[in-house]
Design a protein that fits this description.
Blueprint (H helix, E strand, L loop, with lengths): L1 H21 L8 H13 L5 H10 L8 H61 L1 H10 L17 H19 L6 E3 L12 E5 L5 E9 L3 H9 L8 E11 L5 E9 L8 E12 L5 E7 L15 E3 L1 E2 L2 E7 L5 E10 L10 H5 L1 H24 L10 H20 L6 E4 L8 E5 L18 E13 L3 H10 L7 H9 L14 E14 L5 E12 L11 E8 L10 E8 L12 E8 L18 H4 L20 E13 L3 H25 L2 H4 L14 H16 L13 H7 L4 E5 L7 E4 L1 H7 L3 H4 L10 H17 L1 E4 L2 E4 L5 E4 L1 E8 L6 E9 L2 E2 L1
Parallel strand pairs: 6-8
Antiparallel strand pairs: 1-2, 2-3, 3-11, 4-5, 5-6, 6-7, 7-10, 9-11, 10-11, 12-13, 13-14, 14-20, 15-16, 16-17, 17-18, 18-19, 19-20, 21-22, 21-27, 23-26, 24-25, 25-28, 26-27
């Protein structure tokens, strides 16, 4: 009996195994079958059931395999492909983390050496304490001034000696303790960061350092960085006067560099330097540079007449090959920008290491990373444009704007009707060529020149990023559509005329079409379409739309020391790669404030001719970049607008340009006052809109009503006490919006996430109606649930799509709506919406 049961169990087990084999779970394929399946997988990784059956019919070698077995094979194949990609990604991350760990270990070693050095210096200072008092009594100063090497710079041997000395000093800054480096605020190192950034705490001049991992070879990196005009927006020209090989296989170059001034209120800088390129014994590539002085050599005085000669202290690039590919790069920028030559109010721009870090050091590392990602194909741009073409457009816009601000004589610019008291400077250029380099047919169709109206002013209590973001999103608040139309007409043959001859009106629709952005989205390139309509009946059906090519950068409020820019130029709707550009725009640069500036600070509603009203004298002796912060933040705003003109219309265009720029200045002042944090910052309990409660009171109402209707807390209980409720509501991860209960509901409040989702500001928020938030299906869903919302006090909305003010689609997983009750718990003040896990589509 037992034997019979055992035989039955064996029979059942064998039957089970056969069943598993038949189901395709354990099937061995021949090499020919695998090859046939791989061919199909290359064409279609996930074939349908009909396609699998067709495969069996068309391939005789697969006729003995069930369709279910083939389905399992494709599932396994996709899984292996996914595992392979994930393994490759993890290996890349591991290499990056290994390199970053190496950088951090080196930084730790450097800091330990610096601590040891400070301990020794402290002991020495204690020993010299008694002798110091005697030195003070004698009145003798013992301050040592660093002396620049005055070796003969006219002979190769002398230049080589200077080069070797520069190399040693540069390496001591890049990897040693020659400079007291401190981590740059807001730039914490990590696996996803661009690199490790530091600024000098106390040294002569201004200095910044960066190190990071880049997936390019050292030689390629050196070639890019040495071509400074290609990546530095501030570099006007770089010319190599002399180049000869050094005895150790390196090269020595004598270089003359010109840089743009950031505003109309200060002269530009130039540099006369020696640049030394060599390879170290460990295989690292070094490019180091310093200024030459005392030799009497350099460019002609005429070429440097509009520049102030600044000094490059030993700086450069240390590029080390990395295991597994790529390079580790160290960048040091150490300059003396001769701050004495600018008005005192602008000296923070020339005495701040944070500004140098943003403009030079961080910009260089970001550009290298951008090129690396474009090379690897990680960057995708719109409208079928190649990355190099779009990058060229950005550089042309920035360079053209800098040319307009500086107005160099050797470019053909000359100032007209300037007696030193004008707030708006008018300059003309009769010799500048505006045809594209590769296609002369795309030249501007006018005989005359270009006129530039420019001005600078101080603004207070407004973050540059916030102001530029508002100017970008709300062009109708400051721009004149007819002036844009006049500039656009200059691109079309036979239509150039003085503004007003073909009046048009702006319909209010501004469409932003993104073209591309940099790695960290610190710069955006986009096409703007302004929809216009003619007042003339016979032209009623003719499109009056205007297209602008625009770059916007510095709109991240957390960036330290960065300026914010909005630069644009009219383009033809065909937008060829070699389109001529005539850039105009705004630049806002933050100034480090000093406590003494608070009492005599200038108000925001005044335009300044700082060049004539402020004296230029010796620089103050406070440490670079260490000015204490105060509540009053100041920035310098520079505006420059360019207008083409015909010779017989020069005076008319000049008057129009002057009036237009003054109008723009007035509009910007009004906007700056409206969005000032002292007026709008909810953290200080200000009014959010006329007739609304205090922000703190509204925050209490929102949270209490949410708990009352939905039976759960909007925030953790410890976040609801005192004034912290407003701060936590403002920083809540979900987008929270409040709209009024009117026949046309408009938004009256949004937290930071809500403003980000709508891509707007608190000022412009009050112009957005509830119906503009949702798409058609969203509006229908809200209408169907509105009665339920008003009856029971809340409603839950399913996942859907809403729209930002920029026309971008925003998806959300879920949304809640509830009535916000006032303190008496009976009066409904407004409606609140919370959008959970929202993201741009």
């Amino acid at each position: 009996m037992a034997m019979a049961v055992a035989q039955h169990r064996e029979s059942s087990s064998g039957s089970s195994i056969d069943k598993h084999l038949d189901s395709g779970k354990y099937v061995r394929y021949t090499a020919e079958q695998v090859e046939a399946l791989e061919r199909v997988y290359a064409e279609c990784p996930k074939p349908s059931s009909l396609r699998r059956q067709q495969l069996i019919r068309e391939c005789p070698i697969l006729s003995n395999i069930e369709p279910k077995q083939i389905k399992v094979w494709f599932q396994n194949r996709r899984c292996r492909e996914k595992q392979k990609k994930e393994s490759s990604r993890l290996q890349t991350v591991n290499r990056k983390l290994t390199a970053m760990n190496k950088l951090l270990m080196e930084e730790n070693d450097r800091l330990q050496k610096q601590v040891s050095q400070l301990v020794c210096e402290n002991g020495y200072m204690k020993q010299q304490l008694h002798t110091a008092s005697a030195a003070d009594a004698s009145g003798n100063s013992l301050v040592a001034t660093p002396q620049h090497s005055l070796r003969d710079a006219n002979s190769p041997a002398g230049l080589l000696s200077i080069a070797e000395e520069t190399l040693a000093e540069f390496l001591s800054k890049a990897t040693g303790t020659a400079v007291d480096w401190v981590q740059m605020p807001g730039m914490k190192p990590g696996p996803d960061s661009v690199g490790i950034f530091a600024i000098s705490q106390s040294c002569s001049g201004v200095a910044a350092r960066a190190c990071g991992l880049v997936s390019l070879e050292p030689i390629k990196i050196a070639e890019i960085l040495k071509d400074r005009p290609s990546w530095s927006r501030d570099c006007r020209n770089l010319e190599v006067f002399t180049m000869f090989p050094a005895g150790n296989g390196g090269t020595i170059e004598l270089v003359y560099t010109q840089t743009f001034a950031p505003t109309t209120l200060a002269p530009a800088r130039d540099f006369w330097t020696i640049r030394y390129t060599t390879t170290l014994e460990n295989g690292s590539l070094v490019v180091c540079e310093r200024s030459l002085s005392g030799s009497g050599a350099g460019p002609s005085a005429a070429a440097a007449a509009q520049f102030v000669r600044a000094e490059v202290l030993p700086s450069g690039y240390l590029i080390r090959p990395c295991e597994g590919g790529g390079s580790i790069i160290h960048i040091v920028d150490h300059l003396n920008l001769q701050a004495w030559s600018v008005p005192e109010v602008l000296r923070p721009l020339y005495e701040s290491s944070k500004v140098i870090a943003q403009k030079m050091t961080i910009a260089a590392l970001r550009y290298i990373r951008q090129i690396a990602q474009e090379t690897s194909g990680e960057v995708v741009y719109s409208l079928g444009r190649q990355p190099a073409v779009l990058r060229t457009f950005s550089q042309r816009l920035s360079r053209g704007f800098n040319d307009a601000i500086n107005g160099f004589n050797d470019d053909g610019w000359s100032i007209i009707n300037c007696d030193g008291t004008e707030d708006v400077i008018i300059a003309i250029n009769l010799s500048k060529s505006f045809s594209s380099t590769s296609n002369p047919a795309n030249a501007f169709s006018f005989l005359g020149g270009v006129l530039c109206a420019k001005a600078s002013m101080l603004i207070q209590n407004v973050a540059p990023a916030v102001l530029v973001r508002f100017l970008r999103e709300h062009r109708s608040e400051w721009a004149d559509f007819n002036v844009d139309a006049y500039c656009a007409a200059s691109l079309k043959a036979g239509t150039n005329a003085y503004p007003g001859m073909r009046p048009t009106r702006f319909t209010g629709s501004q469409i932003i079409m993104p073209l591309g952005h940099t790695v960290e989205h610190e710069e955006l390139l986009e096409v703007i379409r302004l929809e216009g309509q003619s007042f003339v009946q016979e032209d009623a059906f003719v499109s009056r739309d205007i297209h602008l090519l625009q770059i916007c950068n510095g709109i991240d409020e957390n960036a330290v020391g960065a300026c914010s820019e909005l630069v644009f130029a009219t383009i033809d709707e065909m937008f060829p790669d070699d389109a001529p550009l005539l850039p105009s725009g705004f630049r806002v640069i933050p100034l480090d404030s000093k406590p003494s500036d608070t009492q005599d600070s200038l108000t925001t509603n005044r335009t300044l001719d700082l060049a004539s009203s402020l004296d230029v004298g010796p620089a103050t002796s406070h440490a670079a970049g260490d000015a204490p912060s105060c509540q009053s933040t100041r920035s310098v705003l520079t505006i420059a607008f360019q207008f083409p003109f015909e010779s017989n219309l020069q005076d008319n265009v000049a008057n129009m340009a002057r009036q237009y720029v003054r109008s723009v200045i007035s509009s910007v002042q009004r906007v700056a006052m409206a969005i000032s944090p002292s007026v709008l910052n909810p953290a200080v309990g200000s009014k959010l809109s006329p007739g609304s409660p205090e922000a703190l009171t509204l925050a209490h109402w929102i949270c209490r009503s949410y708990s009352y209707y939905l039976g759960t807390e909007l925030m953790r209980s410890e976040s609801l006490g005192g004034d912290s409720i407003l701060k936590n509501l403002w920083q809540h991860q979900d987008a929270i919006l409040c709209c009024s209960l009117k026949s046309q509901p408009v938004f009256i409040f949004a937290n930071q996430a809500g403003l980000d989702m709508l891509e707007t500001t608190l000022v412009a928020l009050q112009d957005i109606t509830l119906d503009k938030l949702f798409d058609e299906s969203g509006r229908n869903a809200l209408c169907s649930d509105f009665a339920k919302l008003m009856q029971q006090g809340f409603a839950c909305l399913s996942a859907g799509i809403c729209m930002s003010t920029m026309g971008r689609h925003v998806s959300y997983e879920q949304a809640f709506a509830w009535k916000v009750l006032e303190a008496d718990e009976t009066t409904v003040h407004c409606l609140a919406f919370s959008f959970v896990n929202w993201s741009f589509v």
